[in-house]
Every structure is written in structure tokens, then in C-alpha cells.
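ok so I'm stuck.
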Amino acid sequence: MLQVAGASAAALLTLSACSSATGSDKGSSPGKPSGTVTVFAAASLEESFKTLGKRFEKEHPGTKVTFNFGGSDTLAASITSGAPADVFAAASTKTMATVTDQQDAAGTPATFVRNRLEIATPPGNPDRISTLKDLTKPGLKVVLCDKTVPCGAAARKALDAGGLKLTPVSYEQDVKSALTKVELKEADAAVVYQTDVRAAGDKVAGVNFPESAQAVNDYPIALLKNAPNPKAAKAFIALVRSAEGHKVLSRAGFLKP
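replied:
not stuck anymore, here's the structure
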């Protein structure tokens, strides 16, 4: 009987150990993020967030950050339609509201940076563009983001502030697509974010214009309610909002909130 009791106890200990190991594999260890965190982020955040993603993975061994970059309105629609994601970083409060109105965010989104518009031209600025009004010159091929996209809505505000009307050759679904048109010389100019002009380096030239002050966008970030990996998601958001995160974002040209 003592032998049977001993065997039963050993079996229970073995089962308990297996259960503990399984929980650890699922990232249940308190305070230690693990597994994959999926971040949906505005296209203008691509360079900065990729840098922060690598830093996050280095600081938290066993984690992986995957990104889905695009127009904030498209990303918000995907989230409200049930796309699995942990974090949403939008280029405007309006697009974040699409998610919060559907109660798909956990808690209140926090603004972590701001962004300002700039005119992008081919290197050397061959058309001598110096003002927003110059974009209305006959024959000039100008590209804007679609008005449903934050960079497009901001461009519309800037044009209204200057009392200007502009018919672009195309409306693009995200800021990177608008910038690419200039890089490929398919357009003479595009109204994009100053961060995108900086990220493009010598592929484009940038022109500041005063009306951009009337169309500065706040960028909010939020943990999503149905996040598959909330622990890692919270840790990533903490990195973005930390002094270390702000340093990376400031180098890219983002403004303090």
C-alpha cells in the first residue's frame, strides 16, 4: 500500500510540473512579456516603429513584434471587423475614434506624438515650389492623400486655411504611396508629413509652409480590447511612450504631444 501511495504522489507531482510548464509556454510568467505582439500602425510610423520593434525584441527575449502598416482608416476598419491585433497607433484622433466608438479599445487611447505637413518635391525642387499656393500652378502634377486618410484630411485643412483650391492628379490611400509618386517622378509634388520627407533622405526635397500649423495631427495609441497578447502589448506601448521611445520618434521628426 505504501508503494501505491508513493506512486500516486509521484504521478500528481509530474502532472503538476507539466501543467506549470504549459502555463509558462503561454507567457503566463508574471512581469515577463513573451510571444508575438501584433501592432497595427499608421504608414508614417513605419521607420520609427520598426526601430522600436527591434529594440523591444532585444529587451524582451522570446518576443516578436509584427507590424501592419497602412492608412489609419483602413486599419481601423480591419480592427472593427475583427482582425486580430494587440495595439493600434493611428495618425489622427478621428480614426482612433472609429475603434473606440465600437468599444474595441481597452481603456483610453493616449496621444504619444504629433506630426506636421510638408511639401515633397523631386530632388533639387525643379519647379521652384516655395509656398502651398505654388501647388495650384497650371500643369503642375500634385498628389494628395485621400480625404478619408489623416494626411489627406490635414492637407484639406491646410488648403482651406490658405483659401486655396487644388485638383490633384491622384488621391492616395496612405502617405507612403503619395510620397512614392514623387520619388518615381510620377508627380511634381505631394503634401505629406515632414517625417516622411525626412525618412526619404535625398530621394526628395522638402518645402515647409505656414498653413501646416493649422493642420497638425495628434497620434494616439491604444491597447485593443481583444488583444491576443495583452501583456506584451502593454509593454510595447510603454516603450513607445517612454523617454527612449520619444528619442527615436523625435529623431524621425515627430513633435512632442
